[in-house]
Amino acid sequence: MSRPRADEEEYWHSSKCRAFTFDDEDDELCQLKESKRAVNSLRDIVDDEEDELEKVSWSGEPVGSISWSIKETASSSSTSLEGRDSSLQKGSSSNAALPKQVSSYSLSSLFKGRNKLPSLQSLSDALSDTGVKNYAPELRRPKAEYKDYSSDWSPKDTVRRMQRGKVCSLERFRSLQDKLVLLDEAVAGHDGNVITAVLIFLKRTLRREILFRELEVRQVALCHLIHFLKETGEQKMLLDLLRFLDRTEEVALSQYREHLNIQDVEKKREFLKGCIGLPFSPEDISHIQDHYTLLERQIIIEANDRHLETAGQSEIFRKYPRKASILNMPLVTTLFYSCFYHYTEAEGTFSSPTNLKKTFKIPDKQYVLTALAARAKLRAWEDVDALFTTKNWLGYTKKKAPIGFHRVVEILQRNNAPVQVLQEYVRLVEDVETRLNLATKYKCHDVVIDTYRDLKDRIQLMAYKCKVERGSAEEEKINSILNNTQIRWKN
Length: 491
Known about the structure:
A hairpin with a 5-residue loop joins strand 1 (about 390) and strand 2 (about 395-400). By secondary structure, the protein is an all-alpha fold. The chain has helices at about 5-15, 25-40, 65-75, 80, 85-95, 105-110, 125-130, 130-135, 155-165, 175-190, 190-205, 210-215, 220-230, 235-245, 250-255, 265-275, 280-310, 315-320, 330-340, 355-360, 365-375, 380-390, 405-415, 420-425, 430-440, 445-455, 460-465, 475-480, and strands at about 390, 395-400. The chain starts with a helix and ends in a 9-residue tail after the last helix.
């Protein structure tokens, strides 16, 4: 089929697309009009010999026709349209009055671009009618535009996406079986964050009895949930879970841990008293008893010392005012406090250090370390000396330190003990090499000189002579030892 040259140029220079203006009609209507023009332009290339058979409905109208589609849509939405305003009701009543013969326009005729009956109104005219336009179905968005979290992901794919930090909705897993499969996949992925996220979802959507029963056979997930409940402080659910698992000792420990949230000391004391009857292990129950007894002692000591400090009746409180309260302090801190302020009190008083040692069975090493630090801080060197002095059954005195005298020297030096006190305890260090190192480090010259003399090491003694001050008493002592002819030197 040939066209005139002018028509051909007009055809190639023309376009079906128009620039946008505010006077345009509805976008969907314009698109449908353009679609009709495109279909009509296919007349010359569509085979006219195609099968003309059509399906008809029970009313005799062709299935798929425009009128049939409009009526089907109208009948399905008639219930929702009854409550609308009066203008919409008028439009729907006018639409119901459309003649039946206009429904003879079939889909096959539409795609062939021709009308079967000359009396049929055009597609654009039918769609431009207000009533028909109201009943036109809304076009669906393509699936590609849907967001990831609304997609139909399998449990395995969901876990993988969560591991990569993608947004995934778990609400689509509604059945118990799907939720358990999701949890198993999360555990198999060995990602703690994903496991915790799935457990939070199950905790929110399952009854506790079902959740506890399923987690009992999944120990990894169970451990994650217990840790999560402890971190978030959901104490009630944690106790219910431990009771379900018959972990009575853990239930008792979880209840005991509640004392950390109690600020009032009187309420805490009553709470600890109630914890004594919980099903703890024999080892733990002794600690709970000690905790209650210690807090009870601290309350008594605090009340008495506050009264003495306020009244100004004690010299030590005037000279060394208290910097903090003794309440809720550990046992070692309480012992240090007693050794600092109440060291000389009789054993029968609650604040006596020896009473605390006996009541709480404090080991000798711990007691000596704490008492030494407290008395050295006060520079009470006589108390320090008495701490290490013991008598045997014959009445002879002897110095003995369960912590080792090398540690005694270090503690004394940290508290700025004088050289005479340090030298006394450096001499008591049994190991010769350690004794020399400490004496050299803390400049205990007499200890170094006497040690080299006992070792009969003339060379080391002469070398150490160069380290002391010229004309000092230490240099004279070294010269006196070197000139002693009764000493048989090894070198």
